[in-house]
């Protein structure tokens, strides 16, 4: 467990205090742990969700990569060659 180095005092209304005590009892943890978990969960909830595959595809349809056709063809060939070399290495036909 992390070492707790910050002490804080807060003024809470009675209902919030009761909820914290209830959760601490239910979860078998301290009231401080209830607050830590609640804060952690709130921060995580506000993080933007990663884009879905459909959103990524839609993004690149709207604004494709700024790469020339020749550069794209080179990239495709380089990746194809790398995949083929990896396939041969996995089959034991050649070293990577």
Would you mind describing this structure in some detail?
This protein is mostly helical and 96 residues long. It folds into two domains: 14-46; 53-91. The chain has four helices and no strands. α1 crosses α2 (31-46). The longest helix is centred in the C-terminal third of the chain and has 23 residues, at 69-91. The radius of gyration is 27 Å and the shape is elongated. The model has no long low-confidence stretch (mean pLDDT 90).
Key descriptive features of the protein:
96 residues; mainly alpha; 4 helices
Write a brief caption for the model:
The chain has 96 residues and is mainly alpha-helical.
What would the average pLDDT be, to the nearest integer?
A: 90
- First-last Cα distance: 44 Å
Low-pLDDT stretches are: none
Helix/strand order: HHHH
Biggest β-sheet strands, sense, barrel: none
Helix-residue proportion = 55-70%
User: Overall 3D geometry?
Assistant: elongated
- Radius of gyration, rounded? 27 Å
Strand content: under 5%
Number of domains: 2
Supply the number of helical segments: 4
Describe how the helices and strands are arranged.
Layout: H1 14-27, H2 31-46, H3 53-62, H4 69-91
Helix pairs in contact: 1-2
């Amino acid at each position: 467990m992390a070492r707790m180095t910050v002490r804080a005092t807060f003024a809470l209304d009675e209902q919030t205090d009761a909820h914290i005590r209830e959760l601490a009892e239910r979860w078998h943890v301290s009231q401080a742990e209830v607050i830590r978990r609640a804060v952690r969960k709130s921060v995580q909830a506000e993080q933007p969700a990663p884009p879905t595959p459909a959103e990524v595809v839609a993004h690149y349809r709207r604004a494709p990569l700024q790469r020339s056709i020749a550069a794209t063809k080179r990239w495709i060939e380089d990746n194809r060659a790398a995949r083929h070399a990896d396939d041969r290495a996995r089959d034991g036909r050649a070293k990577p």
